[in-house]
């Protein structure tokens, strides 16, 4: 992976890229929830990025079918230009899982636009084939695009998968950037926009190669578990578990996978620091993980390992709660020398010189 010269810069003649296009593909198998989600971002907001309110960024043009004001051929012209190498540079954002078009003899699973030469729909797979080699970077928005998500669960008829499954997990862009995965169902708004902002700064030569974990997630966003950022984690440590929804205690026994799921939503919240699944009483079902949903089902049942760990925590917690109760009762009493009697009992002794 090259790490010496950021794209858009030369070691001899630094020259920042004046503008960049973002082609946002929503023709995968999905619900457009990630496009809707990013409209709630504030750190940064999509408006700030597009209107040039962030210092140091190149001019950004967004081409997203859900958010664009162009329609039909006016919209698709940018995609055709990009496929011919006439739209440089651009970042390809993919939303939705990638179906397997090889498993059937006729028809197609997903497509966008029509090929003028053949009169046939251009499948999502074909767009990926056309654009991936020309993109500065590929960013997957949401769990469907990153790992396949709900559409790729056992028993699905489409054989769909994540972008890295389709292109290969060792794929690199022409700038040497691996596929960047920002999972979530839908993606957390600021997680995605912060990742996109990092890549734009990298384009401008103001940031090093984006740090990713071994499955393509930004390390600084997905390096810790839900449990580590959860306000309920202290209850787990004390062996104090909720038995019904609405209770403030740890909700592992209600089906929460927080102790093993890598996600920052409890710490970051959902919008403007507010919300997020465990923060509002919801269990974590592991939607940022490659094994979602199959390996986390059935939802709302106590996770397999939770019974052992929570029982151990319960035994340990009873002892700790007893000890802490003694200490708490002691700390809830003022020191005995605070009184209005004529004697000074603080332990102060005047010095004589």
What does this protein look like?
By secondary structure, this protein is an alpha/beta fold. The protein is about 30% helix and about 10% strand. The protein is elongated and about 100 Å long.
Distance between the termini: 74 Å
Number of beta strands: 7
Strand order of the largest sheet: 2-1-3-6-7
- Give the averaged pLDDT, no decimals: 89
In helices, the fraction of residues equals 25-40%
Shape: elongated
What are the low-pLDDT stretches, counting only 5+ consecutive residues below 50?
1-15
Structural class: alpha/beta
In DSSP terms (H or I, runs of 4 or more residues), the helix count works out at 12
Secondary-structure element order, as H and E? EHHEHEEEHEHHEHHHHHH
Radius of gyration: 26 Å
Question: Which strand-content bin applies to the residues?
Answer: 5-15%
The major beta sheet can be summarized as: 5 strands, parallel
Summarize the structure.
The protein is built from twelve helices and seven strands. By secondary structure, the chain is an alpha/beta fold.
Keywords summarizing the entry:
353 residues; alpha/beta; 5-stranded parallel beta sheet; two-stranded antiparallel sheet; 12 helices
Topology:
Elements: E1 19-25, H1 33-38, H2 46-50, E2 59-63, H3 72-83, E3 90-95, E4 111-114, E5 121-123, H4 124-131, E6 137-141, H5 143-147, H6 163-167, E7 180-182, H7 189-203, H8 219-222, H9 226-229, H10 233-237, H11 265-268, H12 304-331
Parallel strand pairs: 1-2, 1-3, 3-6, 6-7
Antiparallel strand pairs: 4-5
